[in-house]
Amino acid sequence: MKLSKVEGTKTPANLHRSLTLELVRVTERAAIAAAEWRGKGDEKAADDAAVQAMKAELDTVAISGRIVIGEGEQHECDDLYIGQAVGLGSGPEVDIAVDPLEGVTLCAKNQPDSIVVLAMAERGGLLNVARNVYMHKIAIGAEYPRGTVNIDWTATENVNALAKAKGVPLSEITAIVLDRPRHAALIEELRGTGVAVKLISDGDIAGVIHAVSTEDTGIDIYLGSGGAPEGVLAAAALRCIGGQMQGKLILDTPEKRARAVEMGITDANRIYDVTELAAGDVLVAATGVTDGTLLDGIRLRRHSVETSTVVMRSWSQTVRWIKARHAR
Ligand code: VTB
Ligand code: MG
Ligand code: MG
């Protein structure tokens, strides 16, 4: 993961730095719980295990937390629903976005890159989006001038502009795209330009992070649509590690539009950049469930469990990789 100063995003350190370690405990515990369901083919059981463990551990943290991006609406799920209060109820008022098991299918199939992700921000810092909303996303590294790509341009225009900015032929550009029927035309268009397309079956938080970490991954750009919650979580990570992203919500039904209005979204066609998706002081933690390109998965040893976590802080732009051994 490449570190580059995120320009213009320096905000006061309103979230105490010791909260980072608290978040590590939360994602570690959820990942350990989900790991029991790796390769068992039961997505719901894996997700439920992660949710329960995450909620239980979050409730030990001295915060007045509020879930703003969660598992769903209050009537749809028992825990980590939008609006649910979490934490001890003492301490700072914070907003929390979670994907307790990002890539449930990957976990159920024991395939790479299933992770537990949580972001914490000052109250009001995170764009509030419902679980069922999708987002068009585009992401590139921090090293390019602002405005190099644009979500409203065609894929062809974007990869041409990127190749020019990078000073390489199109054949040396790699785009990462979620492998979905809805992306068939996008993939065809990209291949037509001569760029390489890396298809992922799930997990586009990792996909966006890979796209901004070109030196490590060889991936230059993320394109396509995925979950809006994952878009906000990815943006929170980019606040800490650098990288450019634009997102546009896909509010394609009257119900989604009405819910978005309730959640404070007045312009359905707005293009959000990183600091508009995740503003102010932000902390992000992610723990690997299955071995992946971002993080190692949970390792079960005879008397212990090993976890691999990354925790980031926007104020200092520190990124820590924490390997932990837990007795069992
Ligand atoms: C997207 C993507 C996620 O699920 O939400 C995807 O952002 C769902 O897309 O990373 P489909 O409904 O087309 O399957 C993930 O891949 C995993 O949550
Ligand atoms: Mg989920
Ligand atoms: Mg997800």
Automatic annotation (TrEMBL):
- Any single Gene Ontology cellular-component annotation: cytosol
Q: Name one GO biological process term.
A: fructose 1,6-bisphosphate metabolic process
Write down the Gene3D superfamilies for this protein, in alphabetical order.
3.40.190.90, Fructose-1,6-Bisphosphatase, subunit A, domain 1
UniProt entry tagged with the keyword Magnesium? no
Checking CDD domains in the record gives: FBPase_glpX
Residues binding Mn(2+) 1: 47, 71
Regarding protein family, the annotation reads:
Belongs to the FBPase class 2 family.
According to the entry, what is the taxonomic lineage of the organism? Bacteria, Pseudomonadati, Pseudomonadota, Alphaproteobacteria, Hyphomicrobiales
Coiled-coil positions: none
Q: Which reaction does it catalyse?
A: beta-D-fructose 1,6-bisphosphate + H2O = beta-D-fructose 6-phosphate + phosphate
Q: Which cofactor does it need?
A: Mn(2+)
Q: How is this protein named in the record?
A: Fructose-1,6-bisphosphatase
The UniProt annotation places Mn(2+) 2 binding at: 99, 102, 230
Q: Which GO terms describe its molecular function?
A: fructose 1,6-bisphosphate 1-phosphatase activity; metal ion binding
Q: Which residues cross the membrane?
A: none
One short Pfam name that applies is FBPase_glpX
